[in-house]
Design goal:
Adenosylcobalamin biosynthesis, GlcG-related protein, 16% strand, 4 strands, four-stranded antiparallel β-sheet, alpha+beta, Beta-Lactamase, GlcG_carb_metab_protein, globular, 5 helices
Length: 171
Amino acid sequence: MGTRHIAVVTLSLLAGMFSVPAFPESASKQPLTVNIKRLSLDTALRIGKAAIDKCRKEGVQITVTVVDRGGDPQVVLRDTLAMDVSVPISRKKAYTAMEFNSPTSVMEERFKGAYGVPKLDELLVSAGGIPINVAGSIMGGIGVSGAPSGMTDEACAKAGLAAVQDDLEME
């Protein structure tokens, strides 16, 4: 018997000694898959376009980012004269709103101090991000950047969501 064969037999015996206990019976009745709704590309585009249209009416050129439920950008639209820096800012606002399932404007006072959660590079607690929440399920987030105030950014994000909210609720 070779050394390799002895090692395999030894490992097999050890594995039998440290077996994992069976799951409770209720766990075995769980579904094998989970159906998760996601925004379609067309819906995300409608959100982005409506946000840009609202800000244009205000005389402002912005960037809007729509992230999916995993926080990944699904749509990024940058108006012609929106500053380059508005692209990463809009993404961070959308991500933060999605992660906390809360408008970023209401979080500005919530996190204070040098070691708060928003110090993570991915997060930005500044008005202009709102979650996309449909029937109690988080679907993603919308972030807008480029307006002179965060409240204008947020109004444009809200206009983006309003463009699809009824359709999402009815589905």
